[in-house]
Design goal:
With about 80 residues, the protein is mainly alpha-helical. It contains 3 helices and no strands. The longest helix is centred in the middle third of the chain and has 29 residues, at about 35-60. The N and C termini lie far apart (about 95 Å).
Length: about 80
């Protein structure tokens, strides 16, 4: 069998990693005040949601406390 001179079938694929463009992309637009406020409100809402779920979820998952009410029916109390 013969071997190819190129390590890949197409030479432009091998040259793609070495190619540098001389065209600079346009500068990014700065976010407006309303966009920054909206992003911060979304972030605060997410953090408050996680904190609330921890606040209500952790005590509900704990098993070391016995329930304050007994599971007695009214029929068993009258006997």
């Amino acid at each position: 069998m013969f071997r190819r001179r190129e390590s890949v079938p197409f030479s432009f694929v091998a040259e793609a990693e070495r190619f540098r463009s001389n065209v600079t992309p346009p500068p990014r637009e700065r976010a407006s005040v309303s966009q920054l406020a909206g992003r911060s409100l979304v972030g605060l809402t997410l953090v408050a949601g996680f904190a609330g779920s921890l606040l209500f979820g952790v005590p509900a998952l704990s098993t070391d406390q016995s329930p304050s009410h007994g599971q007695r029916s009214e029929a068993s109390q009258q006997r």
